[in-house]
Amino acid sequence: MVLKKRLGSLLLLLVGMFSDAIGAFVGINIGTDVSNLPPASDIVAILKANQITHVRLFDADAHMLKALANSGIEVMVGVTNEEVLGIGESPATAAAWVNKNVNSYLPATNITAIAVGSEVLTSIPNAAPVLVPAMNYLHKALVASNLNFQVKVSTPQSMDVIPRPFPPSTATFNSSWNSTIYQLLQFLKNTNSYYMLNAYPYYGYTTGNGIFPIDYALFRPLPSVKQIVDPNTLSHYDSMFDAMVDATYYAIDAFNASGIPIVVTETGWPWLGGANEPDATVDNAENFNNNLIRRVLNDSGPPSQPTIPINTYIYELFNEDKRPGPVSEKNWGIFFTNGTSVYTFRLSTSNRLTGNSSAVFCVAKQNADPAKLKEGLNWACGQGGANCTPIQQGHPCFAPDTYQNHASYAYNDYYQKMRGAGGTCDFDGTATTTTIDPSYGSCTFTGSSNSSTSGGIFSPVAFGPISPQGESAGVTFQASKVKSLLSAAFLALILL
User: Fold this and answer.
1) Same structural domain for residues 75 and 186?
2) For a 10 Å CB count at each end of the chain, is N or C smaller?
């Protein structure tokens, strides 16, 4: 009995260690109903330049999945609504989908989740009977490939499946979907997956007929006389976002399926609307997303689940100008397609702001010959005199451990130091210049508005998304830290 208690305590300690190390994240959705959509390689450059570590694709676009290889960015791929019916009726179709859209890209592309459809219950209710079978077939295909621990399966649902979300403590799912919801929650619990929620305070506010103040929707402090309180639990809600997430937790709990975490797969605020959409403004969008990021990255949950962070994906990267509907529907993007930001925002807890930059950087070309990259890297770090300490193991720019990443850092450091004396950005045709800042995480490229004259910032690397091994096949910082934690666990077990 004493041994069991000590084992239990150890496991709780380890869970805490992993939770603290990983922390909450803010990712982004990438929609493609865009005129003049940039090449996939340019999109990935924008993601890396702005420290975006998690992305959700609405399909399994081959160009994007290839471009994301060796970036370390965690990827959620999507089964489109049009594919759900076929997959839900055929295990063979599901297996073929997994083989084509997941197996083919791992481990280089860090795929960690499959989102089955998009708001299936409310957008294509006729597919409800096959939704969970589709998820089961996809999961079984992952099991067959020994990928079920790495890649989770879930399905994003809108807040519309909960007819009355306030007060959160009384929220329940629409009873007409009881059978499907029950099967869905059992699947998520049995596979250790998570509930995917699309939660939009913008719609909650604009359709609320003035019931809630706009400050509540924008995460802004409320005066004491306007505090939002659940009358049953007396829990205070500082934002509509938290109330929506908590309402979903209570609805899940009503099915006796507690223990399933929630990931918000879509949220955001449009920055431009029509004449009848006065709340879709740049100021409101900037306020919402900056406050959202600050809220998510404090690593806490809503009142009913304070210790479970609310990992969240912002909707969306670019304005989807080809989408039908009102003006606001086309203007949720936080970037224009040339890589400049619609408004200033902070994607991390650091002081680095994302905005427009006139700096020029020298980086390795996408899909450059690895042998030539190796030669260029060796020259830059040797005869070229570049400071290559930041790309050594244990330093901020080591991960992802690829020739592409390391060459980019070395090329740029050489270029920034020598271009005034005639140094060029060529490196036997493997390099190119860009105005997109390639800095990411704690890795700051020389020439960035946040860089030091020594060519790098040597603060500890954050324990972020798992980076796959790259061409040079070194052990990533991530793997080293996990190994250390596991070693600590093993040592503790020996000492019991």
Assistant:
1) yes
2) N
